[in-house]
Design brief:
This protein has 184 residues and is an alpha/beta fold. 57% of the residues lie in helices and 12% in strands. The chain has nine helices and four strands. α3 links the parallel β3 and β4.
Length: 184
């Protein structure tokens, strides 16, 4: 293993495994921790026991930039205190990982097979609670009843769009830098 990505849950694992380029996931394990507190603990354990780079990918659960910065600092401080020279990167999805589906409304329309912009109330909800909004959109969809169905149907074109989302770019950059370091 050259790196670990620690995230909150199994759906996050599936989403990251599907979106991140396959060549970057070689010798990388994506591990669900089961919540923010568990993420910190698992990341610390991996850094100490495996001494390989760890990316912590979690939901910010807020859109308040001050709270987000404080949360990043808190997690980094806790994990880096045991990391010594092992790279650790904290990447928060604002407000949650499901926001990626709302970055490009055409993509969401294509995936759901109807125009979500017609449902303004849910689009407003997506700004602060994209996880709830995607759930409501899926309830209306005739194609998918669960997030996993949506994830499994992503095409290569869809993946290219999702890889351009800023927090996905952060993960990609981290993995690229880890691979470069592993080659040396």
């Amino acid at each position: 293993m050259i790196a670990y990505i620690v995230c909150e849950g199994s759906t996050d694992v599936k989403l990251l495994q599907r979106i991140l380029p396959e060549e970057l996931l070689k010798d990388v394990e994506i591990v669900p921790a089961g919540g923010l507190f568990a993420i910190k603990s698992l990341a610390r354990s991996l850094v100490v026991s495996r001494q390989v780079p760890v990316a912590i990918v979690a939901d910010a659960d807020t859109v308040d930039s001050n709270v987000i910065q404080e949360r990043i600092s808190s997690i980094e401080e806790m994990v880096q205190s045991v990391a010594i020279h092992t790279p650790v990167k904290v990447i928060l999805a604002v407000p949650s990982i499901e926001i990626i589906f709302f970055e490009d409304i055409r993509l969401l329309s294509h995936l759901l097979e109807y125009d979500p912009s017609q449902a303004q109330e849910m689009m407003n909800l997506a700004k602060s609670q994209p996880d709830k909004a995607i759930g409501k959109f899926l309830d209306r969809s005739h194609e998918y009843s669960k997030r996993n169905g949506l994830i499994n149907q992503l095409t290569n074109d869809d993946l290219e769009i999702l890889r351009k989302v800023p927090f996905m770019q952060e993960i990609i950059y981290f993995l690229q830098s880890v691979q470069e370091t592993a080659k040396v």
